[in-house]
Amino acid sequence: MGSARLTLCTAFLAVTALTPAAYAADGGPGVTVTPASPAPGGDVSLRVRGCTGAQGTAVSDAFVSDARLTGSQGALAGQTRIRTSLVPGAYQVRISCSGTVVTGSITVVQASSGQGKEPSDTAASPIAPVQAGGGGSAHFATVATSGSAPDAGQAVTGLALAGVAAAAVGLLRARRSRGTD
What we know:
single chain, alpha+beta, 3 helices, 8 strands, 30% helix
């Protein structure tokens, strides 16, 4: 699992480094949008500098859903998708992190025919996606796996019960072999 995560992170960083970026107009050099001019239905990566926390949220009318940003050392990153039904133009992006609000803008352009897709061929994106992933059982799954190893008291109790069971089986066998059932 560690090598898959490392591979995905390396690929994400390579794509981010090699794709042209646009700096949001209102946010200065603190907000980076990649690619610089996405088309409707396209994926975008957001990077924010200057946030002191480890999490943040990017909100825009251009996004299918809010982008969850994570990171450390003052830099947060996340991904989201541009709505497929969006009219090309400039849209405001509002990023909240650790009590700080950074605003910027993103310019959505018409999809070019050189990309191999016309806007009518693009699959529809959900307007309000459902937060899926386990429902009410997710909490219990994390609680059950967080401390799954028995502590010393539980181990001693288990060994004592196993010893009593072994002694009982031994006594029963001895009584049956002597015929004193």
